[in-house]
Structure formats: structure tokens, C-alpha cells
Specification:
Blueprint lengths: L6 H27 L7 H6 L11 E7 L1 E23 L5 E5 L7 E2 L4 E5 L2 H64 L5 H61 L2 E3 L4 E6 L6 E2 L6 E16 H4 L7 E5 L9 E4 L2 E2 L9 E8 L11 E18 L4 E3 L2 E8 L2 E6 L1 E5 L3 E6 L6 E5 L10 E3 L1 E3 L2 E4 L8 E2 L6 E6 L2 E7 L9 E9 L8 E8 L12 E6 L2 E6 L5 E11 L2 E12 L2
Parallel strand pairs: 1-21, 24-32
Antiparallel strand pairs: 1-20, 2-9, 2-14, 3-5, 3-8, 4-7, 5-6, 7-9, 9-13, 10-11, 10-14, 12-13, 14-19, 15-16, 16-17, 18-19, 22-23, 25-26, 26-27, 27-30, 28-31, 29-30, 31-32
Helix pairs in contact: 3-4
Length: 569
């Protein structure tokens, strides 16, 4: 079968089919070689790159007005004083050979503060120990002699008993022998022999008595010598102990935990018991004293709560304490009374002589409207606060009551639930737009996000406003829409709450976020007027482009922001 094509098919249908095939091939090629990190147009619209404050809005810190308990306080400058101020003296005379501590050093009880030369005292100690040893030897000898005398006395006492028993026996025998002699039962010679035995027994008894008496006298003498040597030993032992203690006095130790406040001497000085070496202050607890006016002391009593800061600006957490004593006698020149609080000071946070801020709480009110003292300002010789209504700041005059130093009672001008500005209100004007932001001690911690993006696009008429430091940056794309080639942007700086200095400048750099390493032509910035700049920007290919804008003052960068533009394919 022969295939025939009509003139219509050749002229219209075949070219259309060719175009479709070519389109599919191009799409497949683009899909195969497209950078996977590159965002398409739809995705780029949904990307929020902004962390700037809403255009023209001032970042502020706010709080809601509420009812609470507030106490009236009075604030005074106080002075820290040591709980005990101890003067350190040596207890013996000697040359100062070591002073291991200096003024300001922390010391613990028992720590060595100074050493004196101990050579002479050591010699005396050795003499005392030798005397003690000699006395101990003498005592032992006397004790041995006493014991031997007592043993002799005991022996002779036993001999007396035996001799007495023998005498008594022969006395009975002699009486019996006399009776027998009278009866001529025995001879005279036998009687004489018995009588001789009796006389010998009496002589032996008398000798035993004499020896026992002599032994007793010797024992008494030995006992006396023992007591005397014991007394000498006690005296020598006490002397040795005393010399040992005196030698230890050459090491001067801290009597309390504290801090060295003054070192009076240097090495090589001959120190005597009346010589002050240094002073040590016991600082835990520490005394906080404040001279309070007579008009305020009437509402301060023992037990009154106090807050103590180590700086005059009341920064950081206060130390909580109570009044522990009030010196009733007024100081006549100043007409003040000293109120004192004992404060635990384990870490040595407060040192003697340091000035502190002392806040005494006097009276309290419950259920009253209170605001932070940071919200209250003086305006036109009146007290006022800035109130946020519908995103704008409004000045409102108020009547205040008692204050505890951090919060103040509001008697008139506010109601519960009002939102007041506590930080960032310095340069505000009435009706200025504001945005709530988090603050730290150094300023704004995190800027709030704006309602619009920082992308130049048709939806915002190719105009973006951003806050840089204290200034407002307005960026407009003059040649719309964005083209692949040279485009012109107009950038203008204007003030928010501070006048613009004359030394501000802008630097603009460009790149594609999807291809950060790609080399591209950089924008050219020129001055078009006072604080106005003309920027020539040349994107080289379709996709998302980022302009990084750096604000400098005196050639020193002070703020940076970004602008995003999408070049359609």
C-alpha cells in the first residue's frame, strides 16, 4: 500500500509534532543536568529569609499591668564591716623569719601566719627535757629505795612476831620449871639451861624490835625522798611541757577563718609580745551597716527584711537578709541611726570596707496595680508610661504610689491588662509603631519577624523596607521586572529615632544561594544623593539571587542584611 501525505499534514501537523518532541527532549535534558540545590520559582516564594524588625517599627520590651502585693522601700548606701577584727600578736619574743600571707589573702583557722626564730627556745626546751629526764631517774631511784625499805620493815615485822612468840613460850616454860624446881622434881642445872634459853629469846625479841624500828625509820626517809623526787619530776615535766608550748608559740596561727586586712611587719624584725604582726577580719558572717535617717528608722525594726546588692545599680540577684540590730544612739552631725544586718558570707563575696546598696522594706499593700520601674519615665515634670495600643506607642500620664525599688504602685492612669513598654522607649514619639522583642542586658536579644518578606517581587511592588541599627533602609527595583542583564536598584537610608550621620556607606555583594561558589559580576554602588545609593546589579542566569548589604560607619561595618530576587526563566 502506498502511503500518501496531504498538503495539510506536511505543512502543519509534522512541524507541530517536531516541536512537541523538541520540548520533551529539552525538558528531559534540563531535568537530567539541573542543580539539585537550586530552588524553583514556587519554592523561592515560600522561603522566608527575613529576621528584621517590621519596617519603621521600634523593637521594645513590654509587660502587662497586673494587681499584686508591693512594699514600700527605702534605699541607702551601706558599708561592710568584719564580724570580728582580730589583731595578731606573737606570744614570745623572736626574729620574724617567715610571713607566708599578705594583705587580702584568705586564711583558715589554724593556718600559719608567721614564724619566729626558735633556736633559743629549742635550746631551753632541750634543757627542760634533760632536767625532766634527771628528775625522772631520781624519782625511780627513790621509789626503789622506798620499796626496799618497806620490804625490810616487813621482814623485821615478821621476825618480831616469831621472837615474841618464842619469848612467850619460854616465859611459860620458866614458870613451870620454877614450880618443878621448888618441888625438887628437876635439878638446878636443867632450870639454868631453860632460863638461858628464855634470856636468849628475850634478847632476840629486843633485837628484832630494834631492827624493825630502824627499818621503819629508813622506810619513812625513803618515802620522804620519793615524795621530794616526785615533786621535782612534776616540776621538771611541767617545765618541759611549758618550754614545748613556748617553742610552738614561734608559729603564729590564724584564730579564725577570715581575710588578712593589714600586714604590719616585714621579715627580719624582732617581734615582741606587744608587737602587732597583722590583722585578720572574720568575714563569715559579715556585718552590713547603713546609716538611716531618723524619719525612716521609725518604720524599721529588728527582723525587717532587707535586700543587699554589691553594686549601686542593683544588678544581679540581691542577698536577702533581715535587720539584726539597731544602734539606738543617733549620730548627731548627720542625725542618722545605724541599722545592721548579719549576712552569711561563706564564699567571701563581700569584703570589709566594701560599699553596698541596702534596701529596707517598710510597709506593704496588697491587690494594687503595679508596673516595673523600668516602664515609668518623667515627662513634663510628671510620671508617665508608654502604652501599646494596636501596635503603636501612646504616652499616658500616671499617678504613682509606693515602690519596692523594682515595682511601683499605679494609683491612676492604667487598668489591669494594659500593656506598657519597659525597654526601648527612649526615642519614641506618640503613634510610633512598635514591635515586641526579647531583650538582654546588652540590648535586643532577638528581633521579631516582619509581616512581609525581604524579597523584591511584584507583590510588594518591588520595594522592601528593613531596619538597620537605628536606621530604615528602603530598597526599590527601578527596572522592573528583573531581567538577565543590567538592573538598577535604588537604596535610601532614613532615620527611625536618630538623625543620620554623614559617614554612612553601603556595600553590596551578590551570589546565587544554590551555587555559592560560582563567580558572578558584583554589583556596583554609587552615591545618588545624601544617604541615597544607586546599585547596578547584573544577574547572569535564571534562579534565586541574594544581595548581601553591609552598612558601615567610618568604614567600620555596623549592620548587615539580605535582599532576595528571583529571575524567571
Amino acid at each position: 500500500m502506498q502511503l500518501r501525505f496531504s498538503r495539510f499534514t506536511i505543512k502543519y501537523l509534522l512541524p507541530a509534532i517536531g516541536l512537541i518532541v523538541l520540548y520533551v527532549a529539552v525538558q528531559l535534558f534540563v531535568h537530567a543536568f539541573r542543580n539539585p540545590n537550586r530552588m524553583d520559582f514556587v519554592k523561592s516564594l515560600t522561603m522566608d529569609m527575613s529576621v528584621q524588625v517590621p519596617p519603621g517599627a521600634m523593637p521594645v520590651e513590654t509587660e502587662a499591668v497586673r494587681r499584686d502585693t508591693v512594699g514600700d522601700v527605702v534605699t541607702y548606701t551601706g558599708l561592710a564591716d568584719a564580724y570580728n577584727d582580730v589583731a595578731i600578736y606573737p606570744r614570745v619574743q623572736g626574729w620574724v623569719v617567715a610571713l607566708p600571707v599578705y594583705s587580702g589573702d584568705r586564711v583558715k583557722k589554724g593556718q600559719i601566719l608567721a614564724r619566729l626564730d626558735s633556736v633559743e627556745l629549742s635550746s631551753r626546751l632541750q634543757e627542760a627535757r634533760s632536767a625532766n629526764e634527771a628528775a625522772e631517774n631520781s624519782y625511780l631511784a627513790a621509789k626503789k629505795s622506798r620499796d626496799e625499805s618497806l620490804e625490810h620493815k616487813k621482814h623485821f615485822s615478821s621476825a618480831i612476831a616469831e621472837a615474841k612468840a618464842s619469848v612467850e613460850y619460854w616465859e611459860r616454860e620458866i614458870k613451870r620449871e620454877e614450880a618443878l624446881l621448888k618441888q625438887q622434881v628437876i635439878y638446878q642445872e636443867e632450870y639454868d639451861r631453860e632460863l638461858a634459853q628464855y634470856e636468849a629469846a628475850k634478847s632476840k625479841y629486843a633485837q628484832a624490835l630494834s631492827q624493825c624500828h630502824a627499818a621503819g625509820m629508813a622506810a619513812e626517809a625513803a618515802e620522804y625522798r620519793l615524795k621530794e623526787s616526785k615533786s621535782l619530776l612534776t616540776k621538771a615535766s611541767a617545765g618541759a611541757l611549758t618550754q614545748n608550748i613556748i617553742r610552738d608559740y614561734t608559729q603564729v596561727v590564724a584564730p579564725v577563718n577570715g581575710v588578712v586586712t593589714d600586714r604590719k611587719l616585714d621579715l627580719g624584725i624582732l617581734a615582741k609580745p606587744e608587737t602587732e604582726l597583722m590583722r585578720v577580719a572574720q568575714i563569715d558572717p559579715i556585718r552590713i551597716q547603713a546609716s538611716v535617717a531618723l524619719s525612716d528608722i521609725q518604720d524599721i525594726n529588728i527582723g525587717t527584711p532587707v535586700k543587699i546588692w554589691t553594686d549601686k545599680h542593683k544588678l544581679g540577684q540581691p542577698i536577702l537578709a533581715k535587720v539584726t540590730s539597731i544602734f539606738k544612739q543617733a549620730e548627731l552631725p548627720t542625725r542618722t541611726v545605724v541599722a545592721e544586718a548579719l549576712v552569711p558570707n561563706l564564699q567571701g563575696r563581700i569584703l570589709p570596707g566594701e560599699f553596698v546598696t541596702v534596701e529596707f522594706q517598710q510597709r506593704q499593700k496588697q491587690g494594687v496595680l503595679v508596673v516595673s520601674n523600668k516602664a515609668i519615665i518623667d515627662k513634663d515634670q510628671q510620671r508617665a508610661v508608654w502604652v501599646v495600643e494596636n501596635g503603636k506607642a501612646h504616652l499616658r500620664y500616671v499617678t504613682t504610689g509606693i515602690t519596692d525599688g523594682a515595682r511601683t504602685e499605679i494609683r491612676k492612669g492604667l487598668v489591669s491588662g494594659d500593656v506598657v513598654i519597659t525597654r526601648g522607649q527612649t526615642y519614641l514619639h506618640d503613634e510610633d509603631p512598635v514591635a515586641s522583642a526579647a531583650f538582654t542586658a546588652d540590648g535586643v536579644a532577638e528581633l521579631p519577624k516582619p509581616p512581609n518578606t525581604n524579597r523584591l517581587e511584584q507583590a510588594n511592588n518591588y520595594t522592601v523596607k528593613q531596619t538597620l541599627q537605628h536606621y530604615l533602609l528602603t530598597t526599590r527595583l527601578s527596572t522592573t521586572p528583573l531581567i538577565q542583564g543590567v538592573n538598577k536598584l535604588d537604596m535610601e537610608l532614613s532615620k527611625i529615632h536618630e538623625d543620620l550621620p554623614d559617614n554612612l556607606s553601603l556595600e553590596v555583594k551578590s551570589h546565587m544561594p544554590s551555587m555559592p561558589k560560582m563567580t558572578v559580576p558584583q554589583p556596583v554602588v554609587s552615591i545618588s544623593g545624601k544617604n541615597s545609593f544607586a546599585v547596578k546589579f547584573e544577574p547572569t542566569m535564571p534562579g534565586l539571587w541574594q544581595l548581601t548589604i553591609t552598612l558601615s560607619q567610618n568604614r567600620k561595618a555596623i549592620a548587615t542584611t539580605e535582599i532576595f530576587l528571583e529571575l524567571a526563566e
